[in-house]
Design brief:
With 209 residues, the chain is α+β, with helices and mostly antiparallel strands. The chain contains eight helices and eight strands, in the order H-E-H-E-H-E-H-E-H-H-E-E-H-H-E-E. The chain is elongated, with a radius of gyration of 26 Å.
Length: 209
C-alpha cells in the first residue's frame, strides 16, 4: 500500500469511528495499532487533531473510564478525504494496438477548448460522444512535449472535431485546423446528417451568421 493510500485509510477509520461515537473522537481502544503509528505524521500535516488534557478528561467522564489518547479529523482532514473519494479515477487506457482507438495528442489550447466542450454537455443539442468526458478527465500530459494524450474511438474523434469547430465559430480556428491536419477529422455541419439539416428553433442547423 502506498503512503497516500495508508493516509486515506487512517483518515477513513477516524471518520467512521468518530461518527459512530457521536462526539467525533476516536479513542485509544478503537484504532488499530498500525493506524495509531501513522497518526503522528498526519497530525504534523494538519489533517488530524489529538485531544489535549482537558479533552481527554471530558472524554473520560463520558466513557466512564480513563481515556489516554483520542484523535479526530481536522477540517483539512475532512476535506482531503472528501476530495479523495470524489476525484477522477485514472482509467485503464487502451494501447496503440487497440484497433478501435487512436492515440491523440492535443496541445494545451486544444485541450482547454475540449474541456469547455465536455463541461457544456448538459446544455448542448449535440452533446459530446459517450466516454469522451471521462477520456478528458483522465488524460495524461507529456510535459516534455507539452501534449495531452488521449486514446479515442472514431466516434469520439468526430466529437472532438465538433467541439473544436464550436471553438472555431466563436473565435479561434487554429485548434480545429491543427486537428484536421494531424488526424484528418473535420466537422462539417452540412454533411453531419444524411437526411438533410436538422431544424433547431425554426432554423436549419447549417444556417450561417
Amino acid at each position: 500500500m502506498r503512503n497516500w493510500e495508508k493516509a486515506l485509510s487512517i483518515l477513513e477509520a477516524l471518520r467512521e469511528r468518530g461518527q459512530a461515537a457521536g462526539h467525533g473522537w476516536t479513542l485509544d481502544t478503537e484504532l488499530l495499532p498500525s493506524h495509531q503509528q501513522g497518526v503522528n505524521a498526519l497530525e504534523n500535516q494538519g489533517l488530524i487533531e489529538l485531544a489535549g488534557r482537558e479533552g481527554r478528561a471530558e472524554l473520560s467522564a463520558l466513557e466512564g473510564r480513563p481515556v489516554w489518547w483520542a484523535a479526530r479529523l481536522t477540517p483539512y482532514g475532512h476535506d482531503t478525504l472528501a476530495y479523495a473519494q470524489s476525484r477522477p479515477r485514472p482509467v485503464s487506457m487502451p494501447g496503440p494496438a487497440d484497433p478501435d482507438r487512436q492515440l491523440v495528442e492535443l496541445i494545451p489550447s486544444q485541450m482547454a477548448a475540449l474541456r469547455v466542450f465536455v463541461a457544456l454537455s448538459g446544455q448542448l443539442r449535440v452533446p459530446p460522444a459517450a466516454g469522451l468526458a471521462e477520456q478528458v478527465r483522465s488524460a495524461s500530459c507529456d510535459h516534455g512535449i507539452k501534449r495531452w494524450r488521449l486514446h479515442l474511438t472514431a466516434e469520439q474523434m468526430e466529437s472532438v472535431a465538433y467541439g473544436l469547430w464550436l471553438h472555431r465559430m466563436t473565435g479561434s480556428a487554429a485548434e480545429a485546423n491543427r486537428f484536421a491536419r494531424e488526424y484528418g477529422v473535420v466537422h462539417s455541419p452540412a454533411g453531419a446528417a444524411d437526411e438533410g439539416p436538422a431544424v433547431v428553433d425554426g432554423l436549419p442547423s447549417t444556417a450561417r451568421w
